[in-house]
Amino acid sequence: MVHIFLLALCLFFSSSVPSHGSVQDFCVADYLAPEGPAGYSCKKPANVTVADFVYSLAKSGNTTNIINAAVTPAFAAQLPGVNGLGISIARLDLAPSGVIPLHTHPGGSEILVVIQGKISAGFISSSANTVYLKTLKKGDIMVFPQGLLHFQVNAGGTKAIAFVSFSSPSPGLQILDFALFANDFPSMLVEKTTFLDDAQVKKLKGVLGGTG
Length: 212
Ligand SMILES: *[C@@H]1O[C@H](CO)[C@@H](O)[C@H](O)[C@H]1NC(C)=O
Ligand SMILES: *[C@@H]1O[C@H](CO)[C@@H](O)[C@H](O)[C@H]1NC(C)=O
Hints:
Belongs to the germin family. With 212 residues, this protein is α+β, with helices and mostly antiparallel strands. It has 4 helices and 10 strands; from the N terminus they run H-E-E-E-E-E-E-E-E-E-E-H-H-H.
C-alpha cells in the first residue's frame, strides 16, 4: 500500500510539476522571426528589456482623414510585451464629427472606457441582428463581444477620447466600408452582394479610394 502511494507520488511529481526550465513568464515578440497563428516567436529572455513592456498612448492620433478619427493600437505588432498574454489596448481619438465606422475585431472581445467627451457606441448581434446602442460619457465603459460589427461616433460636439482593450494581443481590425469600397472588389459584385445600385457603389468607391 505504502509502495503504491510512493509510486503514485513519484509519477505525479515527474509528470505534472514542470521543471524550472519550462516555466515561461512571458513571450516578448521577436520581430525578426515570422508571425504565426499563435503570434510571434519569443525573444530570448536575456534580450528582453523593460522597454518591451512599455509604450505610450499619450499623443492624440491624427484625425485629419475621411473618418475624422484615429485608432492608435498597442497590439503585439507595436508593443512586443503583450505577445502571448491574450491582451492589448488602443487609443481612440474622435474629432467633433468623428466616427469609427462599422468594424469587427475577428480575434478578440473589446472593452471601451471614455475618458473625454461623449461617444455613441453600439454593436449588432450576429444571429438576431439585434442592435445594442448607448451614448457614453466620461467614465462609462462598454463591452463589444468578439467578432461582432460595432461602431463609435462622437456624440458631444467636442473632441472625444477613449481607450479600448482587447482579449487578444492581435485582435485585428476590419472596417466594413473599407472592405467593400476601398479596394478593387469589382463594382458589379459589390452591387450583387450588397443590393446597392451602381451610382451608390461608384460614389462610395470614389470617396473611399476604391477601384474596379
Ligand atoms: C540578443 O542580444 C545580443 C547582444 O545584444 C545580440 O547579439 C543578439 O543578436 C540578440 N539575439 C536576438 C535573438 O535578438
Ligand atoms: C495629419 O494628416 C494629414 C492628412 O494626411 C496631414 O496633412 C497632416 O500633416 C497630419 N498632421 C500631423 C500633425 O501629422
